[in-house]
């Protein structure tokens, strides 16, 4: 008989233990690479450009992670890193990790640098690395590129569609159409032939009236009445037609008059486009500084948007549960109410040190979590540095409050005293480059974003200021009197106050900048531009006149055919009226007929 | 793969316990249909190794069901999400959510819950059905199949040589 084997095999248990051990050892050997790859992969997906990490080191006892050499490419400029971090280290609460909660009490982030150069492009295939207009370019206060150089009027008008020409063409076409229409209509109206017939009928009636008795007399009266009615009908038709043609002619006269003035309107429009208005002159300084301010605002908004996945997750409430969406094929995680609610991820304190070209400063961020509504405390950023190389005092306080997800509020206040500024470009316009050579700056700034609504203001005071009016790229010298005037004016400025106000929504905001540069630049530019503008206007007028003279020629006499028709109608009206006034009887002493015709009795 | 199929056929055609084969196939289905790196699959592995179950059947089923899982994932997701967000079950989920062990199982993920429950519901009936099929196959079909032309052709194939080779190896070279 065959021996029945036990259903349990102890060797299997040993094999299981061995398999677990092998997996654990393998995991320990490869986990650093896995962590590195996952950070790079998820980071690249989130940023839209390469995120690279030099190394990751996961330790189990105590559980923690150290990342070194993190580079986050700027998606808009793939040869630059938005941020580069030398080292990130933190320990994780292992017990909580078993419950799928990541709690980091303290994270150290050192050697943070912004906008560093990359050795190779960090673009990924799906993003268009170049040729993309950035938001800052789109929204920043823009200085006209050819601010002090008026273009050649011939070049402006070359291929340009002048509205005056279109107006004249349309007018001519309408005139032709009206002329054709009225010539046709005139043919349909009662004319000389009809009135000759009426005259004939009248004569016949008159003749029969003379030789008949009472019967003939009464019959003649009825004939006269009928004839009178027919003539009156035709006269009404002619009167109505004449009224209509006179109204049309009057309309065309107005249009001809407007067409004659249209070239002047074109001139005004082009002048407005290519020359600076008094308003734009008075905001010249603002437009100049607006470029830089716009760039900073756009950068801040971009980072705010980029940080969104870190500070809040896409959640959807379904009854007592909260659904958190994951990428495809990973399903969704449903979160239920904890007995003691705690966020899934929480970094209590993050200490960081930032390296800038001017020196180093440190700060901290507290309560970083994508589950702020559970944590109940907003994320706070604070920098309070008093002994830095490049400023006397830096104080920045920021709050990103997502404790009420439907009413997010982000605020930041900054105060910088005694900041030494060197070589900052204010305007990179070829025509009007300006940079700050050196200055000591004071800044007070407050910004608030509630949902999509932004409100911010900043007061900047620059002392010991040395502005540099850059030289024209071709010659290295000032080309004209204007440039010389500007250089002289800018070199005399040693103090400047700038006020910036931003209001609106994230997508559509207005930046108002006030500075001492406005009145100074207006005076200089206005004087220097006056003569140039006058010459430009004269030349432009000549060019426009040359272009429009031909089409406008003969427009005055173009109403002739319509006026002729009106004249003919007047003639026929007169003829008809004369006919109505013809005496039907020359018998003296007879009472007058109630009809316009004089009856023969 | 050929060796695996041959091994499975040999077991199927042997006198091995039908339960051992059918349960191994069902365990393979459970591991295959559910996300691989999950805690419950450690339990599946322990059961497979500790009990005298057919490993070839398990691996074959695991491979087939892993492929099938790609097609069924959307279904598991909707099934799992419907259960997780069902008001009547919220008490159960909240109590499980408070337990570290259950959190480690990842039960609150829609695909994990959907696929595990789907496989678990299918497990017992499928095991029973497979056992019956194996018995019926051995009783009625095996002899008929052996006589078919197809089987004659199969016996001349590489797969059959592997199949026969396994038997030779197991019996110590055939001669001994």
What does this structure look like?
The complex is a heterodimer of chains A (about 600) and B (about 180). Chain A has about 600 residues and is α+β, with helices and mostly antiparallel strands. Among the domains of chain A are: about 20-125, no CATH class; about 155-275 and about 555-580, no CATH class; about 315-340, no CATH class. Chain A contains 14 helices and 16 strands. Chain A has helices spanning about 10-45, 95-100, 135-140, 155, 165-190, 190-210, 215-275, 280, 285-305, 310, 370-375, 480-490, 515-550, 560-580, and strands at about 50-60, 65-75, 75-90, 100-115, 315-320, 320-325, 330-335, 345-355, 360-370, 380-385, 395-400, 410-425, 435-450, 455-470, 495-505, 510-515. Chain A has a 13-stranded mixed beta sheet with strand order 1-2-3-4-8-9-10-11-12-13-14-15-16. Chain A has a 3-stranded antiparallel beta sheet with strand order 5-6-7, with no helix packed on it. The model of chain A is unreliable at about 125-145 and about 585-600 (pLDDT under 50). Chain B has about 180 residues and is mainly alpha-helical. Chain B has one domain. Chain B is about 80% helix and about 0% strand. Chain B has helices at about 1-15, 20-35, 40-50, 55-85, 90-95, 100-105, 110-145, 150-155, 160-170. In chain B, helix 2 packs antiparallel against helix 3 and helix 2 runs antiparallel to helix 7 (about 110-145). The relative contact order of chain B is 0.15. The model of chain B is unreliable at about 170-175 (pLDDT under 50). The interface between A and B is medium-sized, with 30 and 31 residues.
Short descriptors:
heterodimer; A: 601 residues; alpha+beta; 13-stranded mixed beta sheet; three-stranded antiparallel beta sheet; 14 helices; 29% strand; disordered C terminus; B: 176 residues; mainly alpha; 0% strand
Q: Oligomeric form of this entry?
A: heterodimer
User: What's the end-to-end separation of chain A, in Å?
Assistant: 157 Å
- Approximately how much beta-strand content do the residues of chain A carry? 25-35%
Q: Which strands sit side by side, in order, in the main sheet of chain A?
A: 1-2-3-4-8-9-10-11-12-13-14-15-16
Main beta sheet of chain A: 13 strands, mixed
What class, by secondary structure content of chain B?
mainly alpha
> Low-confidence parts of chain A lasting 5 or more residues at pLDDT below 50?
127-146, 585-601
CA-based gyration radius of chain A: 44 Å
Write the H/E string of chain A, N to C.
HEEEHEHHHHHHHHEEEEEHEEEEEHEEHH
Main beta-sheet strand count, sense and barrel state of chain B: none
Structural class of chain A: alpha+beta
Counted by DSSP, the helix tally of chain A is 14
> Mean of the pLDDT scores of chain B?
83
| Unreliable residue runs of chain B | 169-176
Shape of chain B: elongated
Q: Based on DSSP secondary structure assignment, what is the total number of beta strands of chain A?
A: 16
């Amino acid at each position: 008989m065959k021996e029945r084997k036990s259903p349990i095999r102890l060797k299997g248990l040993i094999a299981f233990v061995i398999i677990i051990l092998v997996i654990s050892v393998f995991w320990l050997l490869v986990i650093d690479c896995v962590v590195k790859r996952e950070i790079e992969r998820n980071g690249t997906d989130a940023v839209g450009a390469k995120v690279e990490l030099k190394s990751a080191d996961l330790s189990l006892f105590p559980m923690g992670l150290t990342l070194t050499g993190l580079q986050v490419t700027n998606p808009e400029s793939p040869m630059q890193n938005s941020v580069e971090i030398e080292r990130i280290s933190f320990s994780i609460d292992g017990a909580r990790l078993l419950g799928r909660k990541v709690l980091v009490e303290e994270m150290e982030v050192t050697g943070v640098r912004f906008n560093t150069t990359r050795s190779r492009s960090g673009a990924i295939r799906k993003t268009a690395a170049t040729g993309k207009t950035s938001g800052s370019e789109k929204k920043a206060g823009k200085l006209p590129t050819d601010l002090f150089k008026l273009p050649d009027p011939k070049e402006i008008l070359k291929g340009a569609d002048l509205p005056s020409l279109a107006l004249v063409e349309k007018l001519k076409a309408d005139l032709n159409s009206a002329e054709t229409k009225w010539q046709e209509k005139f043919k349909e109206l009662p004319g000389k032939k009809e009135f000759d017939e009426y005259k004939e009928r009248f004569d016949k009636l008159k003749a029969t009236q003379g030789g008949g008795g009472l019967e003939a007399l009464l019959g003649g009266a009825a004939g006269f009445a009928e004839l009178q009615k027919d003539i009156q009908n035709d006269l009404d038709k002619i009167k109505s037609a004449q009224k209509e043609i006179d109204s049309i002619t009057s309309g065309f006269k107005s249009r001809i008059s407007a067409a004659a003035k249209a070239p002047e309107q074109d001139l005004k429009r082009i002048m407005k486009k290519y020359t600076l208005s008094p308003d734009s002159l008075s905001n010249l300084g603002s437009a100049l500084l607006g470029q830089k301010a716009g760039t900073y605002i756009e950068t801040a908004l971009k980072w705010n948007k980029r940080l969104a996945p870190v500070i809040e997750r896409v959640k959807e409430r379904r009854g007592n549960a909260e659904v958190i969406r994951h990428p495809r094929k990973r399903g969704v995680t449903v979160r239920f109410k904890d007995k003691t609610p705690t966020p899934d991820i929480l970094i209590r304190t993050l200490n960081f040190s930032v390296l800038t070209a001017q020196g180093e400063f440190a700060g901290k961020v507290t309560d970083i979590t994508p589950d702020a509504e559970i944590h109940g405390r907003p994320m706070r950023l604070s920098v309070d540095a008093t002994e830095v190389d490049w400023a006397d005092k830096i104080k920045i306080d920021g709050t990103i409050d997502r404790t009420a997800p439907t009413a997010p509020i982000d605020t930041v206040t900054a105060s910088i005293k005694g900041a030494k500024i060197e070589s900052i470009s204010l305007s990179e316009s070829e025509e009007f480059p300006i940079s700050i050579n050196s200055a000591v700056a004071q800044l007070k700034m407050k910004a608030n974003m509630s949902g999509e609504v932004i409100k911010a203001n900043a007061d900047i005071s620059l002392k010991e200021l040395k502005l540099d009016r850059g030289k024209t790229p071709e010659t290295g010298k000032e080309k004209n009197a204007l440039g010389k005037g500007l250089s002289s004016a800018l070199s005399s400025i040693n103090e400047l106050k700038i006020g910036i106000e931003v209001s609106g929504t994230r997508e559509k905001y207005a930046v108002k900048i006030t500075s001492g540069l406005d009145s100074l630049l207006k005076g200089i530019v206005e004087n220097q531009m006056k003569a140039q503008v006058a010459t430009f206007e004269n030349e432009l007028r000549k060019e426009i006149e040359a272009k429009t003279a031909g089409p406008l020629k003969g427009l005055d006499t173009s109403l002739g055919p319509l006026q002729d028709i009106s004249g003919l109608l007047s003639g026929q009206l007169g003829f008809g009226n004369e006919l109505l006034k013809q005496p039907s009887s020359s018998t003296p002493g007879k009472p007058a007929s109630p009809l316009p015709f004089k009856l023969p009795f | 793969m050929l060796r695996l199929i041959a091994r499975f056929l040999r077991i199927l055609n042997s006198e091995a316990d039908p339960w051992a084969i059918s349960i191994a196939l069902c365990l393979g289905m459970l591991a295959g249909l559910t996300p691989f790196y999950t805690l419950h699959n450690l339990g599946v592995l322990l059961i497979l190794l500790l009990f005298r179950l057919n490993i070839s059947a398990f691996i074959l089923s695991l491979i087939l069901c892993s492929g099938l899982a790609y097609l069924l994932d959307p279904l598991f997701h909707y099934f799992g999400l419907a259960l997780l967000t069902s008001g009547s079950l919220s008490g159960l989920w909240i109590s499980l959510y408070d337990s570290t062990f259950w959190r480690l199982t990842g039960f609150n993920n829609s695909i994990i819950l959907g696929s595990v429950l789907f496989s678990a519901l299918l497990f017992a009936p499928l095991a029973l059905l497979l056992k019956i099929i194996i018995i019926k196959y051995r009783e009625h079909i095996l002899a008929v199949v052996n006589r078919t032309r197809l089987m004659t052709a199969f016996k001349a194939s590489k797969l059959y040589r592997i199949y026969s080779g396994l038997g030779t190896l197991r019996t110590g070279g055939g001669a001994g």
